Amino acid sequence: MKSAPPFNMRKYAVYIALIPLVLLALTPPWNIQLDCTVNGLLWLWCNLVAGFLAFLFLYQKVSVWIKSLLVWCFISCFLSRAPYISFTMFWSVILCAYYYVLCKHIKNWPAVIKAMQAIFFLVSLLIVMQMFGKDTLLNFGLKAPCVLGLIGNKMILGSFMCVLAPFLIYNPLNWAALVLIAFISASSGAVASIGAGLVTYVWKKHKDFRLHVLCIVVIASVLFAWNTGKFKVFGVSGRGPVWVKTCELIAKRPIGYGPATYKVIFPALCGKSIRDQQPGREWNTAHNDWLQIPFEVGIMGFFLFLGWIVSVVRKVKDPVKIAGVAILATNMAIHFPTRMAQSVLILIMYMAFLEEKEYGR
C-alpha cells in the first residue's frame, strides 16, 4: 500500500496566503473600535504568547532586520504611553510577521498576479457603476455615491489602487487604466504615486525617454493639483502642520510613543491650531507612514524597518519591481496604506515578491 505524499508547503502556500488577503481586500467600509474592555487573564495570556512568538521569530529564515524589528516592537509595548492599546494591537504585528514567512514560500506568483488583477477588475466595475449612478450594491443607486470603489472616499480609493499597482504593471495595458483611475479618484497622492512609478520604470527601461516622461509627469501632476485645489491640503490648513508637529513629537520622545498609539496620542498633543483645522475631525493618522512609524516605534524601530526595506530593495534588478517600489514609497509618503486593513497583506506579499529572483527576468 502506497503512503500518502508529503504535504508540499510551497505548492499550497499561495492559496493559503491569498485567502485572507482577498477577504481583507474586499472588506467594505467597516467601523471597528478598540474600546479597552477586553481584559483579564486571557488578555494577559495572549500577550505573553505574542511575546514568545516574537522571540521564536528569531529562528525563521528571514532578514535579521525584520527579526530585530519584531522584538523591538514588543519591547516598545512596555515603553508605550498607551500600553493596553500597544499590547493588544501587537498581535496584528505578529500575524503580519508570520504571514510574511508564509509568503516567502510562494512559488506560483502568476496566481498572485491573477488574483490582484481580478480585484482590480472588480473595483474598476464598481467605479464605473458609481460614475453612472447605477451602483445598487454599495450605494443603493445614489447619484452622488458615499462609498467609492469598495472601501471609502476618493483618497482611500486612490491609495488602495496604488497598493494593487505593483502587481498590475506587468501588464502594460494596466498603466493606462491606473493613470485614468488616479485622475478619476481626484487624489493628488494617487496621481503622484503612479507618476513616480512610471518615471522610475522609463528611467530604468527606456533611457532615451527619461526627461520627456519626467517633464510630462511633473507638469501633469502640478496642473492636476492646481486645478483640484490640492495644494492647500499640504499647506497651513492641511497636512503640513501635522507633519511638522509629528516630527517635533518624535524629537521629544525618540523611543516612540508605542505601537498603534498615534490615533490616541497625537490628537491629545497636537495643539489647538491643528485640532481646529477641521472641527469634528481628528488626525488619527499622519497621512505619512514614514513619519507615523518613528512616532510609534521610535527612531530605533524606524531604523530597523528602513534597514529591512533597503536590504530587500537593493537586490532587485527587475525595472517593473523597482517601479512598484517607487509607487508604494510615494503612496506611503502621502497616504496611510500600512494602516488600512485592505492593504496591509498586499504590502507584505509584495515584500516577499521582491525577493523572488525568477519572476520578471
Topology diagram in text:
Layout: H1 9-25, H2 41-56, H3 64-79, H4 83-103, H5 109-131, H6 154-168, H7 173-184, H8 188-205, H9 210-227, H10 239-252, H11 262-269, H12 272-275, H13 289-313, H14 319-334, H15 341-354
Helix pairs in contact: 1-5, 1-15, 2-3, 2-4, 3-4, 3-13, 4-15, 5-6, 6-7, 6-8, 6-14, 6-15, 7-8, 8-9, 8-14, 10-13, 13-14
Summary, kept brief:
The protein has 361 residues and is an all-alpha fold. It is built from 15 helices and no strands.
Please explain how this structure is put together.
The chain has helices at residues 9-25, 41-56, 64-79, 83-103, 109-131, 154-168, 173-184, 188-205, 210-227, 239-252, 262-269, 272-275, 289-313, 319-334, 341-354. It is mainly alpha-helical. It has one domain (11-23, 38-354). It starts with 8 loop residues before the first helix and ends in a 7-residue tail after the last helix. The model has no long low-confidence stretch (mean pLDDT 88).
Number of helices: 15
Strand content: under 5%
Please give the number of β-strands.
0
Q: What is the rounded distance between the termini?
A: 43 Å
- As a whole number of angstroms, the C-alpha radius of gyration is 21 Å
Helix content: 55-70%
Query: Kindly state the mean pLDDT as a whole number?
Result: 88
Integer tally of domains = 1
Largest sheet: none
- What is the string of helix and strand elements? HHHHHHHHHHHHHHH
Question: Which features does this protein show?
Answer:
361 residues, 15 helices, globular
